[in-house]
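// run 5 | inverse folding | seed 20
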């Protein structure tokens, strides 16, 4: 059952440098681990547009987390902490996450916030704080905790995450979901939101958890296998970028499977945006589209989680 399939009007990206599409495409390859940093910079160095080197454009795309923080660690509206909990089928048997509780008395609806393919970086922690300000008990697990945690930079984080047993890494996300759902401050209604790798993991959790997941919001994440869609009970809010060839190529088959199984879903395709448009630490960020996607996410969780 499709509730909506909307296209948002184009919003110009915020960047002081006019970055060539070829550099964006190379950055997308780099972010997904198809080329390393050296090859990314080498290829960008061969590009020059209007006297601007592709290397300058490439440097502008690298994340700047300090400038991207929107909610302070010490904001009085939230109570953040790092917590450890069991994950018996995961990488090491133990997991760690960033738990952000709204100030005041609960219980609160719970939301799992799943990082990209590089561990729990500051951007994802900030998303957890934003959700807590909106009234949700948010847990952002660090899939890299069993191997030392997010290393402080995305390059090393990406390599660490790629080195993990992916089946066990997903089990760590499943254990995290169950931990926050059953937390004493939770009302036992669970939602999940994720970005890139995390978006695909939201779709995977929807299959694995069935009725135990009340709502899922994948941002530009890989689709669930068509044969698994029948196991999905949670309504999905699917957030898609217009310029995202790999993920969007999966959509027709995914949509067909969702419709065939009468799965409740909405899909929003944000015109003029690129994969990663919600991440406000790089020029891929589209302020207007990200704000609208976040508004829709909060409203969706409020509707389905109580």
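// decoded
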């Amino acid at each position: 059952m499709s509730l909506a399939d909307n296209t948002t009007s184009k919003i110009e990206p915020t960047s002081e440098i006019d970055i060539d599409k070829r550099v964006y495409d190379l950055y997308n390859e780099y972010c997904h681990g198809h080329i390393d940093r050296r090859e990314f910079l080498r290829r960008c160095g061969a590009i020059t547009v209007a006297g601007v080197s592709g290397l300058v454009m490439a440097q502008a795309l690298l994340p700047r987390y300090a400038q991207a923080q929107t909610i302070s660690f010490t904001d009085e509206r939230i109570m953040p902490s790092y917590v450890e909990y069991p994950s018996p089928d995961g990488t090491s048997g133990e997991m760690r996450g960033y738990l952000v509780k709204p100030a005041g008395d609960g219980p609160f609806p719970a939301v799992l916030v799943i990082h990209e393919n590089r561990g729990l970086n500051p951007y994802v922690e900030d998303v957890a704080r934003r959700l807590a300000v909106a009234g949700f008990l948010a847990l952002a697990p660090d899939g890299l905790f069993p191997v030392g945690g997010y290393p402080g930079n995305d390059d090393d984080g990406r390599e660490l995450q790629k080195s993990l047993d992916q089946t066990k890494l997903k089990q760590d996300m499943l254990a995290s979901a169950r931990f926050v759902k059953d937390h004493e401050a939770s009302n036992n209604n669970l939602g999940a939101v994720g970005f890139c790798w995390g978006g695909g993991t939201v779709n995977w959790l929807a299959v694995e958890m069935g009725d135990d997941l009340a709502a899922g919001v994948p941002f530009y994440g890989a689709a669930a296998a068509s044969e698994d869609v029948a196991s999905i009970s949670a309504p999905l809010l699917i957030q898609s970028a217009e310029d995202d060839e790999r993920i969007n190529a999966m959509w027709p088959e995914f949509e067909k499977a969702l419709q065939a199984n009468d799965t409740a879903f909405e899909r929003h395709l944000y015109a003029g945006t690129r994969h990663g448009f919600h991440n406000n630490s790089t020029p891929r960020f589209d302020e207007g589209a990200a704000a609208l996607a976040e508004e829709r996410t909060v409203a969706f969780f409020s509707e389905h989680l109580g």
